[in-house]
Design goal:
five-stranded antiparallel beta sheet; alpha+beta; 160 residues; 19% helix; four-stranded antiparallel beta sheet; globular; Glutamine Phosphoribosylpyrophosphate, subunit 1, domain 1
Length: 160
């Protein structure tokens, strides 16, 4: 199981480094293969990979899609072959799961969430619109915890 963590301050102020360090420490046991980070105005997203599929060795997360959305995916995509076929050349069988999910979101928007079969949790940060989408499959075992405060939102697939 890989792990993700993020914090977004609505007013755009920088994320304190102690929050990033706490998130990084909490994720470390779940993702021994990478320690990746995305930072933008008022937001930091961390990802720690535990590589389990051949495609996952080529993954870079958080993943930035062609339209600038930042996608972080922790999960298993059981219907990747069908999604790749439906995406008509936007991705290939060599594409990573996060790339398939990002392409599906780019094609169908939020409607794609109902199409993702498997056990998963994801975050999508849309920096141009300053919109954050947090979602998980409704019956799987992966967690996606979040806390909304008056000035920020924090989320993680593990308790921090």
């Amino acid at each position: 199981m890989s792990a993700q963590f993020g914090i977004w301050y609505f007013d755009g102020r920088p994320v304190p480094e102690e929050h990033v360090d706490r998130g990084r420490s909490a994720l470390a046991p779940y993702g021994p293969d990478t320690d990746e980070k995305y930072s933008g105005e008022g937001i930091t997203i961390l990802y720690r990979a535990f590589r389990t599929t051949k495609e996952s060795y080529f993954e870079v997360q958080p993943h930035t899609s062609s339209n600038g959305d930042v996608v972080t995916w922790d999960g298993r995509l059981d219907n990747r072959k069908q999604l790749i076929e439906q995406l008509n050349g936007r991705v290939t069988v060599e594409s990573t799961d996060v790339a398939v999910v990002a392409a599906a979101y780019g094609q169908w928007g939020g409607k794609c969430l109902a199409m993702l079969m498997g056990d998963w949790a994801l975050s999508i940060w849309k920096p141009k619109q300053r919109v954050l989408i947090l979602a998980k499959d409704p019956v799987g075992t992966r967690h996606l915890y979040y806390s909304i405060e008056p000035d920020s939102v924090t989320w993680s697939t593990v308790l921090v």
